[in-house]
Amino acid sequence: MTPLARDLARRIAAHGPLPLETVMAEAAAAYYADNQALGRGGDFITAPEISQMFGELIGLWVGVAWQATGGGPFHLVELGPGRGTLMADAWRALGKVGTATQQARVHLVETSPRLHQAQAAALAGLEATPTWHADLATLPGDAPLIVVANEFLDALPIRQAIRRPDGWHERRVGLDGERLTLVDGPLIDPATLRPAHRDAPSGAPSGVIAETCPAAQAVVADLARRLSAQGGAALIIDYGPATSAPGDSLQAVKRHAAVDPLDHLGEADLTAHVDFEALADTARAAGLTVDGPTPQGEWLQALGITTRAQMLARNATPRQRDHISSALQRLTDPAHMGHLFKVLTLTPA
To answer: Which UniProt keywords apply (predicted)?
Structure first.
């Protein structure tokens, strides 16, 4: 049992089961504070770590979004920038778009001091000195915002409800002996669920699970308010279905292998699928124009990733060409990241 799990077990024994949302939030805080999460030596690899092409194409997208704002000063924001790889690659590509890098001010929303160091190292020498923020609240409001969030929302804490014969119950984390386990909590108001969840046929079996992520909804609502007031655009890339649907998507990864979500709290990457339909509904309700969700493979192909791969391969060694080809397949093939990962763009109406 991890130190966090022992602390949670003591609290549960004293006061009863805890909301899953609370447990996930505490697990994420402990995990990103103490673990080298990203890369081949960590627990998982994100798209920017697979190939420079991913960040480069995002940089070109930023350039187009910047031009749409009129080409003046702007704030380039990344939510959850990991080791800074995406921003570094994007910045190099952005340098080819007019005076974009001269007009940009870089902001990184990151709470981990350890990752601050990695991000600073990745951006050193690129004339992209970042300002760090613990959350969105301190982002500036004096110029357009262009925001990139790659695999950020999937790590935010979720709520789960489980269908029983007497209605929907909140799922909480309780104890089975000394082991943490998910248990039924109090009844909840079905109105707090997505229609695709609460309108399930009355004959649906007991045990159907519905997930919501208030934290992700709050991020999109905040971005919508800022984009409406300041202009700019937001790019959200993450994994999950295009439409809301019941199901248990809570998962944990440790050393690139799936583990029980409650067995390594604070020492494994704990995530859940992003509900893109819910995010899009929130953005539209706030007056934004929404494009997508589009499968990542289609989006990258539309931006020219195959052409970029061919350009890189021209001067590459045979081993490098194999790596480029493998990365292209991994990022775009529906059997890999090409379909499960989706892209959502938000702009002022």
So the answer is: Methyltransferase, Transferase, Ubiquinone
Determine contact, residues 234/345, Cβ cutoff 8 Å: yes
- Residue 251: inside a domain, yes or no? no
CATH code (residue 86): 3.40.50.150
Q: What does the pLDDT look like over 9-46, one tens digit per residue?
A: 999 999 999 999 999 999 999 988 765 555 455 566 78
262 token code pair: 């409650």
Asked if residue 333 belongs to a domain, the reply is yes
Distance CA 131, CA 118 (A): 14
Q: Residue with structure tokens 């049992």? A: 1
Would residue 145 count as lying in a domain?
yes
Structure tokens at 243: 């439409």
Residues forming a β-bridge with 182: 173
pLDDT of residue 311: 93
Residue-level length of the chain: 349
> SS3 for 189?
coil
What is the extent of the structural domain holding 341? 47-156+214-240+275-348
Q: How far apart are CA 20 and CA 268, in angstroms?
A: 16
Q: What share of the chain is helix, strand, coil (3-state, %, to 5)?
A: 40, 25, 35
CB distance 134 to 142 below 8 Å = no
Number of domains in the chain: 1
Upstream peptide bond of 293 is cis (omega within 30 degrees of 0): yes
Burial class (CB in 10 A: 0-12, 13-18, 19+), 257: exposed
Cβ-based neighbour number of residue 46 at 10 Å: 19
**Looking at the whole model, is its pTM more than 0.90?**
yes
Domain annotation covers residue 85: yes
First to last CA, the chain: 50
CA distance 307 to 313: 10
